[in-house]
């Protein structure tokens, strides 16, 4: 999982329609979202940051040192703090993706089913 995959996920989310409408479909979240200003424009900064990376940086996020992050921030019209925030978010998504690929989601479901059986 790399920034190319992350960019592809963003593209798929954008194809699904308005982000606010999508989030409002999540049970229990709909009422909270009506007052929030959520739009697909939120992805523009993320896309600008990723597009400012070289192909090698997108494929190997581990090489993003301080000087590369500064260059990416300058190229994307954002700050180094925003680049760092995106990298942190990417790391979190990457961990979840690794767990899912490794069967972690299946194991989680099995554990939940076991707990539900014990409760009965």
Descriptive account of the structure:
The chain is mainly α. The chain has one domain (3-119): Orthogonal Bundle (434 Repressor (Amino-terminal Domain)), CATH 1.10.260.30. It is 72% helix and 0% strand. It has helices at residues 3-15, 19-24, 30-33, 42-51, 55-59, 66-76, 80-101, 104-119. The longest helix has 22 residues, at 80-101. The termini are far apart. The mean pLDDT is 83.
Salient structural properties:
about 70% helix, SRP54, mainly alpha, about 0% strand, Signal_recog_particle_SRP54_M, 7S RNA binding, Signal_recog_part_SRP54_M_sf, about 120 residues
Low-pLDDT ranges = none
What structural category do the secondary elements indicate? mainly alpha
The helix/strand order is HHHHHHHH
Q: What is the tally of helical segments?
A: 8
Please, what is the CATH homologous superfamily?
Signal recognition particle, SRP54 subunit, M-domain
Which overall shape is indicated by the principal axes computed on the Cα atoms?
globular
Which fold does the CATH topology refer to?
A: 434 Repressor (Amino-terminal Domain)
Provide the helix percentage: over 70%
* Terminal-residue CA separation: 39 Å
Strand content: under 5%
Rg, alpha carbons: 18 Å
Mean pLDDT: 83
Major sheet description:
none
Total strands: the figure is: 0
Number of domains: 1
Assigned CATH class: Mainly Alpha
- CATH architecture grouping: Orthogonal Bundle
Pfam family, one: SRP_SPB
Domain Signal recognition particle SRP54 subunit M-domain: 1-97
GO molecular function, one term: GTPase activity
Region (Disordered): 57-76, 101-120
């Amino acid at each position: 999982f790399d920034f190319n995959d992350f960019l592809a996920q963003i593209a798929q989310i954008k194809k699904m329609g308005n982000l606010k409408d999508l989030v409002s479909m999540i049970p229990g979240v709909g009422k909270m979202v009506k007052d929030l200003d959520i739009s697909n424009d939120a992805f523009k900064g993320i896309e600008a940051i990723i597009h400012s990376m070289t192909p090698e940086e997108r494929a190997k996020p581990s090489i993003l040192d301080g000087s590369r992050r500064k260059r990416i921030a300058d190229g994307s019209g954002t700050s180094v703090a925003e680049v760092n925030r995106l990298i942190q978010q990417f790391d979190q998504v990457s961990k979840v993706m690794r767990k899912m690929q490794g069967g972690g989601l299946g194991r989680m479901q099995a554990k939940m089913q076991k707990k539900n059986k014990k409760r009965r």
